[in-house]
Predict the structure.
Amino acid sequence: MTVSVFIDGAIGTTGLEIGERLSGRAGLSLIRLDDAVRKDTAARAEAMNDADFVILCLPDDAARDAMTLIRNEHVRVIDASSAHRVVPGWTYGFAEMHEGQRQVIGNSWRVSNPGCYPTGFLALVAPLVERGLLPANHGYTVNAVSGYSGGGNALINRFRMEEPDIGFRTYALDMVHKHLAEMQVHAALDRAPLFAPSVVRAMRGMMVEVPLFLDSDAGFASARELHDALSAHYLGEPLANVMPMENTPAEILLSENMVPSDALTLHVLSSADGSQVRLIAVLDNLGKGASGAAVQNLNIMAGLDELAGLRI
């Protein structure tokens, strides 16, 4: 049996990579629109309602509008935008985040793909808050840096063509960012974290850090307890790897020419006296942070090999 997939927004950074990963796969067929009609509402609606799965790779408002075009109740949707990540009725598509989440995704008709920054933050924090090892009422700080592909074609062109001397860009200086609600809701926090995102001169790759003072009287577990809990949580997960505490690296690097990957590497780095810890997630913002996650969710929902089309 062949599963048909239509990617709405297939010429954007995320959509192109999803299309490349799905193209030619046994058991899958891609519904494609000619360039002349790919923005035509009627043509898009027909393609959506003919597909078994629709993957939305659109800006938020366009993704919401696209959902109004689906009339066929049998069409299942994966939204790669942030439009539905905290909307009731939508399943959050991070299979490894909670026990049983993979099964929920597999049974869902509407799945919202996680954001790249939230993937790193939630991978570190959500399992620990759930286990009571980190307090839900703490004001968390998130320091994160990403390759410029996370900003789509506009930011890619800015770094490559318009302002090629940019080495580092920090933004969201007004403390407002569309990922904040997603981080708070899915980590079950009392308040949104303080989020400091930045971009470096690299096409892809991402590092997300949550630094903490481990005050036991404020509900924080020890660094060893945090590490062991994350190790147990991700045990057997092929895409997630918790590094041992015993070998603290001298540095963690992002390469300007990162090899595409769907892996998620987590670090728990402790000070000698155990009073401070740096929780760090390293991932590919276009892999586990976008296209790879969408392909993984599609595989789960369609009952296919979960790792098909992924890069470990």
